[in-house]
Amino acid sequence: MTHEPFESRTYEIEVLTPTIIGGQDKIQSFEFVKDGDYLYFINFDRLLEENLFKESFIDELSRGLSTGDRDFNIKDVLARYNIDFKNSSKYKLKLEGVKRLSKEVVPFVKSAGRFYIPGSSLKGAIRSFVTKALNRNFIQLYENDLSSAYQKTLNSADRRNSVDPKHVSKDAEEKIFATPYESPFKHLKISDSDFVSSENAGVYEIKVMNICGGQVKWFAGRSNEDDPDRAVSIIAEGIKPGAKLIGSIKVEKDFVEGNQVVRGIKEKIGVNATATSPTEFLADVLKAVSKDYIQREINFYTKYKQAQIVSEYQKLLNVLNSLDKNQFLIQIGFSTGYLSKTVGIFFNKNHFEKLAKVDRQSKIYPELFPKTRRLVFKNGQVWTVPGWIKVTIK
């Protein structure tokens, strides 16, 4: 009797908080029309094809688009020529309590115009969370990399020879997870999800909270303001809470146990994970990491008196504590922040002092880093944090 070397399963994602997987080019104001509580996104191919013989319209449209005139209003142009923008739109999204619409929208990644969650995004989030579960010896490798980069920066008189901060953890990553050929993650295979309709997506408003002098401020471009109404708004397409997506996942035994070539993650993990099934072992690890991360964020937001976000995280913690052995929570996508994507959750003031010397492009405050959080607003009020999903492996 032969055994499959992996478990081939279906995963189901349930979106718990607005989730944004950012596409490439931002959608500019001339590409959408606001009508009531909806944004209609223009299909220019259809618009031009259906109005090809309206030469003055084509001229005016071309002139407005080519000059980049900030006052160019496509809704007004369409109205002058009695063109119904709704008939020329490729999709519409509801504005989910957006109070201030900016000149551009962060697009959600799409395939043939349809919303989905790439398998690479889910796998990348899993990898980021697994790094937060590493035992102390492996975390030390990241610290060693940072110390090495710090010394190299101090010894370099020429700023052009400074260390690229993006590469600070490269050696540690290779020592822990090896080359792509030898990495345990080659034994974790995740497909793209299925598609969700635009009815399951919306447009969200995000603002940046910044801790200045121990007080909550809101990033407003050149200043940080007490009043969030004066803050910069990031507008983004996202999948709504409650939406469900499915795909396939294969967790090979070698991902956990390793083999002659690959050292599995089991021997690297410093959290309590006792399950014997590969999928359940992975779920155990991710639940432990998420619980620690959520509790740290509850402590952070409690300190700065953000009761709404504390409440949102408490809901997530309640969900996590009720999960079955084949389920886990994870944060994914755009605006989820430094702590979600790095091992920086374990760094202290000394580490950040070194990082501040190495990374000359970012503003790093060793006493408190990161100082900022991106939060989703609704109707002008702090509402929730982006990117939390529940994953069930069936």
TrEMBL record:
GO MF terms held by the record: RNA binding
Keyword RNA-binding: yes
InterPro entries, per the entry: CRISPR-assoc_Csm5 (IPR010173), RAMP_III_fam (IPR005537)
GO biological process: defense response to virus
UniProt keyword annotations, A-Z: Antiviral defense, RNA-binding
Pfam families in the cross-refs: RAMPs
Residue stretches making up the CRISPR type III-associated protein domain: 12-336
The protein's role, per its UniProt record: This subunit might be involved in maturation of a crRNA intermediate to its mature form.
Family, as annotated: Belongs to the CRISPR-associated Csm5 family.
Name of this chain's protein: CRISPR system Cms protein Csm5
Lineage: Bacteria, Bacillati, Bacillota, Bacillota incertae sedis, Caldicellulosiruptorales
